[in-house]
Amino acid sequence: MTDHRPGPLALLDASSAPPHAADWIGEHLDAIRSAADEHGAVLVRGLVLDTRETAVAAIRAVVGDGMTEREGFAPRDTYGPGVYSSSHWPADQPMCMHHELSYASEAPRTMAFACLTPPTSAGVTAVADSRAVLRDLPNDLVERFERHGWRLTRHYNPYVGTSWQDAFGTDDRAEVERYCAQHGIEPSWGADGGLRTVQTRPAVVPHPVTGERCWFNQIAFLSEWTMAPEVRAFLVGEFGPEGLPFNTFYGDGTPLDRATVDLINKVYEAHTIREPWRRGDLMVVDNVRMAHSREPYRGEREILVGMGEPFRP
């Protein structure tokens, strides 16, 4: 693996912006998008985001009409079309590098994160260049994933993650089955009413604008081997090794081993860029070009998230 140290996050200074952050963003949207196109992610620092309403308006100024999330793997609060709270995920557990909704048939190209309350410590939303990650992964591993894609299995249950009703936005089984048929998902229902799904997606995709090959997936994040050992042991004890809430495989169904998942996470780490949150920060991320993560934290933390410009990988 080549040692390519990532550079700093692109920064735009908005400290002289007027109180209405959304107006300033509208006036400087071309510069924000240009910086995100060039660097993959840009941090706008110095905005006045002192209420949830101002944060929502700032995000909407970036993502427009927004994109409705389907198939979410953790609960969120909804604050408007395409604008949500961060996923409700334990503060002491990391959300490892991933591309938002890369397991779905339609994913957002653009993500916007607005910081209302920075955590007392840590809690960074880090980013990593997917082109560099792809370059530094072993060729044989990349070729295998390009040939077969990657597979995600999910077991929706009331104890871990989100319910199938919330994930699909309906409590109608027939509607879930129609959605699955339209989006290349294989559903099966358990005797207890639980839902199991299987879907296979590409692991490497061309960028929708530049055509560059990008490592675009959640192979490592949603793998059993990225879970904390005690969490995995508990879940296996409760649901069995075949009943984990989520797990990933090679696209032909071959299981992944810990060494492979650890290697992917190691390459992500080599290309990770971190910038601690400050109140009023707005980060705009190209969701194809850059993976993102959420690191463990202490204290209160409120980051709003927007998704926009849906595309089909």
TrEMBL record:
UniProt key word Signal: no
Q: Which cofactor does it need?
A: Fe(2+)
Q: Which residues form the TauD/TfdA-like domain?
A: 23-305
Record's Pfam families?
A: TauD
Transmembrane stretches in the record are: none
Arranged from A to Z, the UniProt key words for this protein are: Antibiotic biosynthesis, Iron, Oxidoreductase
Instruction: Please name the InterPro entries in this protein's record.
Output: AlphaKG_dependent_hydroxylases (IPR050411), TauD-like_sf (IPR042098), TauD/TfdA-like (IPR003819)
> Which protein is depicted?
Protein AmbC
Q: What species does this protein belong to?
A: Streptomyces djakartensis
Gene name?
Answer: ambC
